TrEMBL record:
This is NADPH oxidase 2. Keywords: Cell membrane, Electron transport, FAD, Flavoprotein, Glycoprotein, Heme, Ion channel, Ion transport, Iron, Isopeptide bond, Membrane, Metal-binding, NADP, Oxidoreductase, Phosphoprotein, Transmembrane, Transmembrane helix, Transport, Ubl conjugation, Voltage-gated channel. GO terms for cellular component: monoatomic ion channel complex; NADPH oxidase complex. It comes from Certhia familiaris (Eurasian treecreeper). Catalytic subunit of the phagocyte NADPH oxidase complex that mediates the transfer of electrons from cytosolic NADPH to O2 to produce the superoxide anion (O2(-)). In the activated complex, electrons are first transferred from NADPH to flavin adenine dinucleotide (FAD) and subsequently transferred via two heme molecules to molecular oxygen, producing superoxide through an outer-sphere reaction. Residues 16-125 form the FAD-binding FR-type domain.
Length: 298
């Protein structure tokens, strides 16, 4: 029996030693808000879009590691995660970073953060296509912050060498208030694309899947305003869920003969729906349109 056990045990111990070594390297933490953003720097850290890291804060728990998707772009000189305060550990991190205090926190006063990673996901392949559909549900929108930032940096630096020519982005959420930071990112991209006269590069649709009667009345009253009452974007928020069959058929009609990457970060049920639509809307002819489905479930 020991011959079968010693190999896996050796690999496990090596993995734990590597994680311990990585966690001892110093990380500088900067934080602004209460869906808090941690902006960190670490010697030798290299990332790709959509990757994730494991994070430990010894001031909160000496044993707990938690996975978080990176929301920064590889082109930035720091890496960042967004942490929603929804449990004991995230509440402890919020307090340890001094986010409950009004005064500015010096970097040296912030707690030590141990980081392991980054680790790859399907989102890394987004630059392999000319046309992509990005679908984020709820907190699943976070990997696409990294993707959209990186796409924009590449586009501004050298658009002619960027294979990706068109992005269709779908954001499904019950409540946008928890993800206002992402709406701010979309506002920035929207303004910059209009300045460069290329507003067609990114098409996005935001679907609010949960609202009450009071909110619905407020939406109707302000519907004619130039900017959306919820997000502040020019693209108005839609209510309910997308008709995926219509969306796929419309995109297929606009890009005949293309390989279209479909990237999802969301629940398993939505993954099944998008996978079926990708198959049913792909043509048998190799020269026809093909949807290639990639998923990251939570």
């Amino acid at each position: 029996t020991w011959k079968w056990v010693v190999g896996p045990m050796f690999l496990y111990l090596c993995e734990r030693l590597v994680r311990f070594w990585r966690s001892q390297q110093k990380v500088v933490v900067i934080h602004p808000f209460k869906t808090i953003e941690l902006q960190m720097m670490k010697k030798g850290f290299k990332m790709e879009v959509g990757q994730y890291i494991f994070v430990k804060c010894p001031a909160v728990s000496k044993l707990e590691w938690h996975p978080f998707t990176l929301t920064s772009a590889p082109e930035e000189d720091y890496f960042s995660i967004h942490v929603r305060i929804v449990g004991d550990w995230t509440e402890g991190l919020f307090n340890a970073c001094g986010c409950d205090k009004q005064e500015f926190q010096e970097a040296w006063k912030l707690p030590k953060i141990a980081v392991d990673g980054p680790f790859g996901t399907a989102s890394e392949d987004v630059f392999s296509y000319e046309t992509v559909m990005l679908v984020g549900a709820g907190i699943g929108v976070t990997p696409f912050a990294s993707v959209l930032k990186s796409v924009w940096y590449k586009y501004c630096h050298d658009a002619t060498n960027l294979k990706l020519k068109k992005i269709y982005f779908y954001w499904l959420c019950r409540d946008t208030h928890a993800f206002e930071w992402f709406a701010d990112l979309l506002q920035s991209l929207e303004a910059q694309m209009q300045e460069r006269n290329n507003a067609e590069f990114l098409s996005y649709n935001i679907y609010l899947t949960g609202w009450d009667e009071t909110q619905a009345t407020h939406f109707v009253v302000h519907h004619e305003e130039e900017k959306d009452v919820i997000t502040g974007l020019k693209q108005k928020t839609l209510y309910g869920r997308p008709n995926w069959e219509n969306e796929f058929k419309t995109i297929a009609g606009k890009h005949p003969g293309s390989r279209i990457g479909v990237f999802l970060c969301g629940p398993e049920g939505l993954a099944d729906t998008l996978n079926k639509q990708s198959i049913s809307n792909s043509e048998a002819d190799p020269r026809g349109v093909h949807f290639i489905f990639n998923k990251e479930n939570f």
